[in-house]
Automatic annotation (TrEMBL):
<dbReference type="InterPro" id="IPR052987">
    <property type="entry name" value="Chloroplast_AMP-bd_Enzymes"/>
</dbReference>
<dbReference type="GO" id="GO:0030497">
    <property type="term" value="P:fatty acid elongation"/>
</dbReference>
<dbReference type="GO" id="GO:0008922">
    <property type="term" value="F:long-chain fatty acid [acyl-carrier-protein] ligase activity"/>
</dbReference>
<protein>
    <recommendedName>
        <fullName>Long-chain-fatty-acid--CoA ligase</fullName>
    </recommendedName>
</protein>
<dbReference type="GO" id="GO:0009507">
    <property type="term" value="C:chloroplast"/>
</dbReference>
């Protein structure tokens, strides 16, 4: 919970600091499960398997953009 509160409190600051930039920060979603090779979310070279992450968290990601 401590991490969520920290990020929630920092979001307005980050949003303000990047308002003139060509990129935006957020929305974000924090998961309890680490991305590892064993659970199939990382490759052996420690790269995120984006297709598997997207399929696993598809519903949560869709809810971020509603």
């Amino acid at each position: 919970m401590k991490c969520c509160c920290l990020l929630t409190n920092c979001f307005p600051y980050l949003s303000c600091r990047t308002s003139d930039c060509s990129f935006q920060i957020g929305p974000f979603f924090i998961v309890d499960e680490p991305f590892t090779i064993d659970n199939g979310l990382m490759t052996p070279t420690m790269k995120v398997r984006r297709d598997r992450v997207m399929s696993k968290y598809q519903e949560q990601i869709a809810n971020l953009f509603k």
